[in-house]
Amino acid sequence: MKKFFRILFTVLIAAFLLIQFYPRPEKNNGNTESEQDISKVINTPAPVLAILKTSCYDCHSNQTYYPWYAQIQPVALWLNDHIEKGKKELNFTLFGQYPVSKQYRKLEEIGEMVQEDEMPLVSYTLIHRNAKLDESQKQTLLSWVGSARKYFQNTHSPETLERKP
Ligand code: HEC
C-alpha cells in the first residue's frame, strides 16, 4: 500500500510538472484607459468604481491583474477561461459600445448577480479574499445600479430601452 501511494504521488508530481510546459494564454492586459469604460459613459462614483475594479474587472474588463500564482498551470488556463466567458457576457472596458438597450439590461443583470451573491464567482473569491463583497459594498453597488437605471428611464423612451432580440 505504501508503494502504491509513492507511485501515485510521483505520477501526480510528474503530471503537475509536465502541465507547466503547456503554453500560457496571452495576457488580458490590453488597454488601461478606454473612453468606452463604464466610468466614462455612466455616472460611476469613485467608491463604486473601486469595488468594480477590485471584484469584477479581472474577468469583466480588458485589464486583468495577474498575481504570481496565475502563472502556474492549470491556474493560468482556468483564469483565462473565466476571462473569455466573463468578457463575452459583460466587458466594463467597452461598456459604452453596447447599444443603450443592452447597457440598460446589463445594469439589471449586475444588480441580480450581486443581490443573489452569484458574482464574483465563489471559486475566485476563495483565493481573492479581498474581492468578496460585504453587505455595505453590495448595497453601494445596488443603489448605484438603481440610480443608473432610473437615469436611463428619465433620458430614453421605453421603446429604446426595450430588449432587442
Ligand atoms: C473569476 C471571474 C469573474 C469575476 C471576478 C466576476 N465575474 Fe461575472 N461572470 C464570469 C463568468 C465566467 C460569467 C459567464 C457566466 C457564467 O459562467 O456564470 C459571468 C457573467 C456575469 C454576468 C452575466 C450574467 C447573466 O445573466 O448571464 C454579469 C452581469 C456579471 N458576471 C457581473 C459581475 C459582477 C458585477 C462582478 C463583480 C461584482 C463579477 N461579475 C465578477 C466571471 C466573473
What would you note in describing this structure?
The protein has one domain. It contains nine helices and no strands. The protein has helices spanning 2-19, 38-41, 46-55, 57-60, 75-89, 100-115, 122-125, 135-155, 158-161. It is elongated, with a radius of gyration of 20 Å. Bound molecules: heme C (HEC). Heme C is lined by residues 55-56, 58-60, 82, 85-86, 89-90, 109-110, 113-114, 119-121, 124, 131.
Helices and strands in order, then pairings?
Blueprint: H1 2-19, H2 38-41, H3 46-55, H4 57-60, H5 75-89, H6 100-115, H7 122-125, H8 135-155, H9 158-161
Helix pairs in contact: 6-8
Bound molecules: heme C.
The site of heme C has 19 residues, from helix 4, helix 5 and helix 6.
Number of strands: 0
For the CA atoms, what is the radius of gyration?
20 Å
H and E order: HHHHHHHHH
Largest sheet: none
User: Unreliable runs, pLDDT <50, ≥5 residues?
Assistant: none
Task: Indicate the percent of residues in helices.
Answer: 55-70%
Distance between the termini: 60 Å
Shape: elongated
How many helices? The count is 9
Mean pLDDT value: 94
Molecules bound to protein: heme C
SS class: mainly alpha
Name the descriptors.
elongated, mainly alpha, binds heme C, 165 residues
Offer a quick outline of the entry.
By secondary structure, the chain is mainly alpha-helical. It is built from nine helices and no strands.
